[in-house]
Design a protein that fits this description.
With about 270 residues, the chain is of the alpha/beta class. It has a single domain, classed as P-loop containing nucleotide triphosphate hydrolases (Rossmann fold), CATH 3.40.50.300. It is built from ten helices and ten strands. Strand 9 and strand 10 form a beta hairpin. Helix 3 runs parallel beside helix 5 and helix 4 crosses helix 5. It starts with a strand and ends with a helix. The structure holds adenosine-5'-triphosphate.
Length: about 270
């Protein structure tokens, strides 16, 4: 079953001098097992859109997760939020417990999930965090390690859909690579992943589906190679600039050169 957005619109600060439209008539269907990359300039509406998917923001229009509609007062929001886990930008700012083990156990407890020791180890393996970190304070970790703990605390209640809002923001190259590997593993496990990023080429190997936001509008949704072939002006007006790797990939793709698959793996 999919996540479906139908005519989704949202404004902040309605009827105030600060009223700001963040989503305008967005329509999108996200099928199970897909990997979606949301891109677009700063302030284009990506985070707002992601926050509508688990009911943190209730927009006008309709957001349906499997059979659960976020704006239906009969919807069990706990059930919906258990299905759709969000890893926020700078999630580490939300830590408040003394040990990593307690941080990891907090969300599953909330969702009535009895998390087994082996499951914690399994999730630690996925993100690449050593087991002997469990008794450490989350505040003693590096930024990248904190990000990994935040990812585990969402994985720990086994959501079907996992949303990453700019998962690699503020991280160094090797930690970005490790977050990328986590995304890859989760998607290979069949999880549906929806992520916003400014680092498109890091995800090239996975050939995600791409959604482009511009000034609160969803201006493109489609396959990765169709995105790559989009007109350069159209892209740069949406704040999207290709780096060297994407340019190389585009050249090979347009020439139908087999090299493109090698470039994607770089
Ligand atoms: N809490 C808020 N109150 C008022 N306006 C907001 C709020 N959050 C976001 N906005 C505005 O809504 C618009 C969309 O913001 P949003 O955070 O969704 O964009 P974004 O594409 O995720 O940006 P970024 O890439 O910088 O994270 C922007 O103009 C932003 O200033």
């Amino acid at each position: 079953m999919p996540i479906e957005l139908e005519n989704v619109s949202f404004s902040y600060g309605i009827n105030t001098p600060f009223e700001k439209k963040a989503l305008n008539e967005v329509n999108l269907k996200i099928n199970e097992g897909e990997l979606w990359l949301f891109i677009g300039h700063t302030g284009s509406g990506k985070s707002t859109l992601l926050n509508t998917l688990n009911g943190l923001i209730i927009p006008n229009g309709k957001v349906t997760v499997d059979t659960l509609q976020t704006n239906n007062k009969n919807t069990n929001m706990k059930e919906l939020r258990k299905k759709v886990g969000i890893i926020f930008q700078y999630p580490e700012s939300q830590f408040f417990l003394p040990t990593i083990a307690e941080e990891i156990l907090y969300a599953p407890k909330n969702f009535d999930v009895d998390l087994k020791k082996e499951e914690i180890k399994f999730y630690m393996d996925i993100v690449g965090l050593p087991y002997d970190y469990l008794n450490r304070s989350p505040f003693s970790l590096s930024g990248g390690e904190m990000r990994k703990v935040a990812i585990i605390s969402v994985l720990s209640y086994n959501p079907k859909y996992i949303i990453f809002d700019e998962p690699t923001v503020g991280l160094d190259y090797s930690t970005r690579k490790s977050v990328f590997n986590t995304v890859k593993k989760l998607n290979n496990m069949g999880k549906t992943i929806i992520l916003s990023t400014h680092w498109i080429s890091e995800f090239l190997e996975l050939k995600p589906l791409v959604a482009i936001m511009k000034n609160s509008n969803l201006i493109f949704k489609g396959k990765f190679d169709d995105f790559i072939k989009l007109d350069q002006n159209f892209l740069s007006e949406a704040g999207i600039i290709f780096d060297e790797k994407l340019e190389l990939y585009k050249k090979a793709l347009l020439k139908n050169d087999k090299l493109k698959d090698k470039i994607a793996m770089l």
